[in-house]
User: Fold these one by one.
Assistant:
Number 1:
Amino acid sequence: MWTIKFRNGSVKRFKFPIRTTAEGSIKPFDGKPEPGDLDSELLFTEAELKSPIATVMEEASVTDADLKKEWKMDDYANLV
Amino acid sequence: MPLLPIKEASKGVALAEPEIIEETVDILMVGGGMGNCGAAFEAVRWADKVDPSLKIMLCDKAALERSGAVAQGLSAINTYCGENDPDDYVRMVRTDLMGIVREDLIYDLGRHVDDSVHLFEEWGLPVWVKKDGKNLDGAKAKAEGLAIRNGDAPVRSGRWQIMINGESYKCIVAEAAKNSLGEDRYVERVFIVKMLLDANEPNRIAGAVGFSTRENKVYVYKCNAAVVACGGAVNVYRPRSTGEGMGRAWYPVWNAGSTYTMCAQVGAEMTMMENRFVPARFKDGYGPVGAWFLLFKAKATNYKGEDYCETNRAMLKPYEDRGYAKGHIIPTCLRNHMMLREMREGRGPIFMDTKTALLNTVNGDLSGPEWKHLESEAWEDFLDMCVGQANLWAATNCAPEDRGSEIMPTEPYLLGSHSGCCGIWVSGPDEAWVPDSYKVKADNGKVYNRMTTVNGLFTCADGVGASGHKFSSGSHAEGRIVGKQLVRWCVDHKDFTPTLKENAADLAKEIYQPMYTYQENKGGSTDPVVNPAYITPHNFMMRLIKCTDEYGGGVGTLYMTSKALLNTGFWLLGMMEEDSKKLAARDLHELMRCWEQFHRLWTVRLHMQHIEFREESRYPGFYYRGDFMGLDDSKWKCFCNSTYDPATGVTTVFKKPYVKIIPDA
């Protein structure tokens, strides 16, 4: 139960559920499927893997694609 | 007679020569937030099947039950696809983040995320269910036998968001992770501060080192594979909070950029470190606005009561003309962009019109049971995830049905899981639809999903760059992806024996250097916080955030910077690098604070280096390059990546091609 008291003295009370199972009761693997193929992208609880409905594969071209900047610790002292 | 301050008893655990604990594991998990809770859950299950001898260890700087960004709770899960295709999820994220994102990673996350949400509900997280047009809270839904994992309708606040009663969200997820691991496979209050490379194989992770924040112990781990997931970066820019309010921040203050710094320092390629997130939130309390905008349909208005997103519509045109801000999504940065204009031109304060929203919802009737229900929902939004905002409303006699509340863009945050996307470059899944340039080939020629460019080093959640909008659920799902890959890595590298370059005693000396610095110099002044030979972590942070704020585009300049301003900042940061070697700690708490400052300095400097490199304003409203105010696709429709070479100490920032995978709708 939350109690909120305002500067002007008015009081509000609220109560919300915080969990629906007993604390400490989680058994993470009970009733879960056995893991399958280690080399697939499926998580152990999953049976189906989606892939995109459609793809375009457009690489954006930019100018100065090879632009680079190197930073060494000694550089900083000379910047101002 | 009053004591001189130096004679005050230390407030934390006293420092002493540390005991060194050395341990060899197969899988090391650094961080205990949503990401690694997912990684633990998945890795244990696969390890149990394929090789139960694999040794797993998870280290959390805090305590799992309330660590990470979800520590305080949440009132919504922001990524739940449900009836939506992951393709549309990619389109939404791409639009919000101004076009340059890793669509493979986002799609991959979208196809797994719902499974994590269903697990949360099963474990005991109360998830709201819609029944006959009414909202049932998670407990009532369960009592009626309703659950979203069985196909019942969630309460959508937006297309991707669902409502929960999330005060104990992290406790529940942490309990599942702990029960998966068992008592012996995690340690709490151990702060890992450096990742370690192998002495024999180049570019190969071999371990990590850290220390206990409760006892004088240094932990040196050797490992075959590691995942680093310890959040984003907070207090790298001067916060708006001052004085008694300082420490209040939107994102958790314990996120010190450790993920980025530790991975970058061993050579991991970084991506989009110029990106940041500036959330517009309820002023001072940093209360969430999502439920107000989405669930209650409230409007944000200037002092005249105008919806500034309407009156400033023309500001979007230059971006729309270039193909941005299309569809129904106005990118978060552009919404800030419009708000900032109002503030600059004196049309603030900006208010969330809570009153109109609430009155409209109940047709003006504040006496019936519908109002009681609505009022409760409105307050729960804060009480579940941001109690301080509820406190501030009460302290200022602000009842949302009586008056609106001010909202304001906060200081910048660096993160990869919310509406921001800085982080580490990782491999996408090894599938035909993923471009080759997005796959990182490991030493054995194989591709390991979410592996960084360092062999055996993985990351997830806030760590993975160019892939925002994961939020809590997506971070957990991404952790699960990594959990499986860690096991796969260990099975494929069964014969690897990690060999550290450094010896444990030297590492311990390095970690405890701030203690020695203090011990050697404490006689130099009568006040322990002012000393000619050392600097306290608090003062170091103040120095750092003043510099970044003024020169790196913080709130002080309304997020404006330029090459000249940045250079002045770098000049100061160069001296702060020197000063960082003089950080001093009086107790274990301050030792933790010292290491957080090393991490902050590295991370925010890299952020500014990336901003310096990208000569355009890609995210107006998050930051501006005053010397390049436009958005320039011809030069910059690409990722900005960087690497640090641990052998030479050189950081190189460069362009990396962006590939559009998912077509426009």
Number 2:
Amino acid sequence: MTCREFEENVYVWDLLSEAERTEAETHRQQCKTCQSLAAEVQQSREWIAHARHYPPQVPDHSAFTHRIMKAVVKPKNASVWSVLKAFVARESLRYAFSVLSILLISDFAYEWQAADHPQAKKWIGQAKITLDTSMLMENLRKRKENKQDPPFSLYAHYKEKYRNEINNN
Amino acid sequence: MTELKPEVIRLAMNGDTQAFRVLVSQCQGFAYSVSFRVLGHAQDAEDVVQEAFIRLWKHLPRYRFDVKLSTWLYKIIMNLCLDHLKSRHRQQEKNRMEMKDIFRTYASSTDGIEKEELHTLIQEAASGLAPAQKAVFVMRDLEGLEAEEVCAILSMTAGNMKSNLYYARKQVAEFLKANYQLNENPKGYDVQGI
């Protein structure tokens, strides 16, 4: 056995077979350098063995157990289905939302009909609910006149187009 | 570590949280010890232990009694620690800054500044090891597990484990030789003689 081989063995002495130990031991008895190395390794092993007997301690045992258990049994993230189930389970909320939905749908249907139906339009006109835009249009015209060279605006372009259509009607 | 009763494990496997609490209470000590020794950081160790128990709880119904539960838990912890070490590679400086944690943690269990210094030096020496070397060193030398168990936990061959242990011990020994002056076996702890 060479000194290099002895060094490789001496650090893992506890993992050697009997034959390997005997061979390493024979070399050590013949080599002063390896005897010194073996003593150093033995010393470091003793220091490490000392540290083994003082394991790091959990700062607060019961608090740490509580923390772990809280994390382990915490409820799962709410899924859409679980939210729906919770909602359906509350009867008063369910009826309130149903009534509100029916009201909103009825209102939407009425407005939709009123917008397209000529009779409804007439009725709205009689009731003077229609929006009078003449004042807004006048303001717009004045603003345009005051501006010397307004920048091109897509919005303004289409607004002009539809305004003309409205005026024609 | 005290052996866990099979009936407690069976109850926990069936979803009994009280049984699992007993299991956590019994295992958290060694779980924290090993993760702290590998990570060298108290807060990280606590987070890893918590995550390990969450995984244990999740996978416990699949547990088979042919392996010790502690070995199974060690395996989960070591996988988490190694992942953590890889992701934390760039945070070595933070690790060094937290060395004071080690003093604080050991202070409650030891009675002298020399022992604290020794523990801190060993931890510091271990912090310079590659993750696999550190894992082998902690399991074998600091936790005192059998070589076969270390191989099983880290999914290593005996040769690979021996090689990692050689480099780890050599580096730690050289570090201690350079930094620690107390030339005596503090309480005559038994180590396998050379």
